[in-house]
Every structure is written in structure tokens, then in C-alpha cells.
């Protein structure tokens, strides 16, 4: 098996993290955890993108230096990921010296290979996108993504000769049909290439907040050019050849759909220009939408303002400190609990939040994100199904088996369901479809609940037939702990403990430990508080 190197985009530190960031990060985390469970060698990277006009602008607004601003906001990201039990192996900040070295080494190679030239750039720039637009691309004279005015910029820039890579990129796409997924997004990326590629400006002289260009210190690299290299920095590019070559190119970049051009056109071409193999896989997901509008940092700001004013009907949890974000007057009343990751974890708990982010909106498509949706899935899947199964089994083992869990029947009908579910879940994780892996797991939970309802062991006299039903249900709980551990690590460990098993599911291996019949029997089963108390709609 090749090693499994998975990355999230590195997030801008102009503002606090929101649920959209958490969506990508939790999905990447679950994938990393699944691969660790399979015994694969895993490296999971996330981090922050700290250069560029957007961050410099936020710092100026708050009267601090860009570095001070980045140092403050990065704490919010670190805190959010700690809360959500994100298991990243590294966290990269683009202001770190190791990153400066890697960017300079990488771009010096591109320069030495003859793909960088000096020219004058004139264009319309959106600071929020950190990107140029043509007049035709503007909507009513404003940025098509942010609706904010663009600025005219003219400066001497170094250009990356992207136009030279059209044919090579087309060939690469043809030879690597799985490099960009899903297929719809691959087609989108391909159509960018087929539409013709222009050289891109990769340095700035109008600002200092960036990585200095090694061959011309008047310039700093344009933020995107610096940011993309983070994926190589973290594995030691420019410093530790055997290590980065060990992890590269077997990388999986998980990204949102708005940054497809950077990752699926620029980045592979940059790699080619530097003599590095392009990334093996970019998986592009859609957007979480609230009432059809992108959950953006602007909405986070609006929310912070609402919360500070005591409005919005939120639970009062602070998603984003208005002092820190420079809140402006709210235009759309969106509930805070729908926006900031911490407001969700405080309200629903860490694992229920993670479960929702993994289960509700399939990776690849856009989907609605709503408080109502969260409550209804929580009640259906977690309270009524999983929580109920755990509670029921522990109660009946207590009353009918003296609190000692019986062993399962090796030939139980549930064994066949479990085998099918394991195979479906394994396939789904491999396809980057955590929602399908969880859907499959819930079929096993449903089957166990149904078999308990059919047998009604709570009404029967203690004896071998009651033991058989409960032994099977306990074995299902053991398997479910393993299968849900990438999504809900604490819940999985708690179920494991309650059914009397040693260690934690995370220490086991799939598929070896996921074969039917592994529950030993003869161990104490304990009841606990409801794992997922039912919520009012
Ligand atoms: N700094 C760049 C990325 C550089 S990567 C070399 C950037 N940062 S960002 O802070 O704007 O984060 C964008 C990413 O956050 C998206 O690609 C996606 O992963 C995530 N999301 C932001 N809003 C989102 C939604 N509304 N829904 C789902 N994911 C979202 O772009």
C-alpha cells in the first residue's frame, strides 16, 4: 500500500474559522483516521495561509501588524481543530521559516528551468479572492464572487509561463483519469485547460507581506503561489529529499470547488515546471449553503455582531469575537449555531457535530446546512438508532444476563449483514464517500435493532436464546465502534468500554479485527448515561 498523505486547503487568517472550514477539515480527519485503522501509513496536514493582501488588510483594519494578526487568528483555528478532535500530524503556517525556504527553493527551480519571465501587469484585482478579473468577468462592475469593488493594479511582475503547459496538462489528464474527482469537477478543470491558458503573474512589488523572491528581493511571491507549495513544505521539500519523496506524489488534496483552478491547473503545472510529479489526487467537494448563500466569513461577522447585540436567537456561544473581526452591521439574520464550529460542538457535542458534517452533505455536491437538519438527523440516527441500541443492550444484559455480555453466534444472520456492511464501508472510504460509509454502518445498527425488536429479549426468561440475541447485538456494537471510530472517536471508545472491551477501537485493525465473532463474551457490560439524549425539534 502506498502511504496515505491527505491535506486540507490552508485557511486564510483574515477571520475566524467557520463551519465551511470545519466541513473540509472533519472530512479529511475522518479519512485519515480510517486509513490509520486500516494500518496504512498516514500523514494528515492542515494549516493556515497567512500572507497576501486579504490578511494584510485585516491587520491594518485592526491596527496591528500582519504577523500579530496572524498570530492571534491562528489560535482560533488551532482551538477549533482541538475542539473537533482533529488528528492532524502537522499544522503548517506559511509564515514559518521552513515554508519560506521551501517556497524559495521550489520557485528558484521553476525560474532556473526557464519558466519565469518579467513583465508589466495591468488588471482588475479583487482583494477577497486574491485574484485578477477581466472586465467581462465582473458583475455590474464588481467581483463576481464577493460583489465588492475591484481595484485597478499595474505593476512589474514576474510571470509563470503557464501557457507552455497546456499540452502537458492535457496529456496528464488523459493519462491520469482519477487525478481529479468527482468526474464533473475533472471536466470543469479540463475545460479551463482546453479554454487556453495565459501566463500568470506570481510576484508583487506593491506589498511586502509575503515570501521574498530569492533572485529579486524587491518582489514577494503572490499569495497563491506561496500557499500551494505548503503541501511540499510540510513533507520536507528542499530540506529532506528522502522524506518528501516518500510521501509524494501519493497525496490526496481535499478542497472546496471554488479553488479548483488553483489546484487542478496551476498546481500540477507548477510541479511540472519545478521537475516534481503533480499530485496524485485532488478531490473537490461542494459548498455547504445556508438558505442558498455560501456560509462565508461575512456571515460569521454578521453573526458575531448579532450575538454581541444579544440578538439572533442563538445559544449565546461566541463563534467569532466582534472585537477581533471588525463586525459590520448585520444584513442577514443567520443563527450563530449554524456558523461557528464551537457553537455547534457546545450545543450538540463534538461527535454529533462531526457525524453531521460527514453524513449529511455528500462530498462532491453542494448541500443545505441548517439547524433543523442537524436536530432531525441527530434524533433519527444518533438518539433513536445508535444511542437506543447501546442503551437497550446494556439494560437487558443487566436484567437478563447478570451484567455479563454473552458471546455471539458464529452463524448469526447478522454476521452476513456485517460482512456486507464492512465491504460497502471500505469501498465508500476508498471513494472519498464518508456519508456512504456511515449509511452502510447504520444498516447494521438498524438490523440489530430490528432483530432485538423481533426477539423481545426483555420479555423473555433468561437462558440460551436470550443470550444468543444479546451476544449478537454486542458483537454488532463492537463492529459499529470500529466502523464509526473515524467519524466519532470518543463515542466509539465509550461504546467499546461499556461493552467490556480493553483498549480502544482505534488500536485495532480493519479488516482483521472486523470479522464477525470477535466479541469474547464473559465480560462485564456497563450502563451509562444516554450517549445522545433526544433533542426537541
Ligand atoms: N487560502 C486559500 C487556500 C489555499 S490552499 C493552498 C483559501 N482559504 S479559505 O480560508 O478561503 O478556505 C477555503 C476553503 O474552506 C474551501 O476550499 C473549503 O475547503 C472550505 N470552505 C469554505 N467555505 C465553505 C463552505 N461554505 N462549504 C464547504 N466548504 C467551505 O481559499
Plain-language structure description:
The structure is a single chain. Helix content is 47%, strand content 13%. Strands 1, 2, 3, 4, 8, 12 and 13 form a seven-stranded parallel β-sheet that branches. The protein has a four-stranded antiparallel β-sheet with strand order 6-5-7-9. Among the domains are: 289-368, no CATH class; 386-524, Isoleucyl-tRNA Synthetase, Domain 1. It has helices at residues 19-37, 53-61, 66-83, 97-112, 166-175, 183-194, 223-228, 230-233, 241-247, 260-274, 297-308, 322-325, 341-348, 350-359, 371-400, 413-430, 434-455, 464-484, 489-498, and strands at residues 4-7, 11-12, 42-49, 90-93, 116-126, 131-133, 151-160, 180-181, 200-201, 203-204, 220-221, 251-256, 281-285, 288-290, 293-294, 367-368, 404-405, 523-524. A hairpin with a 2-residue loop joins β14 (288-290) and β15. By secondary structure, it is of the alpha/beta class. Residues 9-12, 20-21, 23-24, 49, 227-228, 230, 255-256, 258-259, 287-288, 294-295 line the site of 5'-O-[(L-methionyl)-sulphamoyl]adenosine.
List the helices and strands and how they pair.
Blueprint: E1 4-7, E2 11-12, H1 19-37, E3 42-49, H2 53-61, H3 66-83, E4 90-93, H4 97-112, E5 116-126, E6 131-133, E7 151-160, H5 166-175, E8 180-181, H6 183-194, E9 200-201, E10 203-204, E11 220-221, H7 223-228, H8 230-233, H9 241-247, E12 251-256, H10 260-274, E13 281-285, E14 288-290, E15 293-294, H11 297-308, H12 322-325, H13 341-348, H14 350-359, E16 367-368, H15 371-400, E17 404-405, H16 413-430, H17 434-455, H18 464-484, H19 489-498, E18 523-524
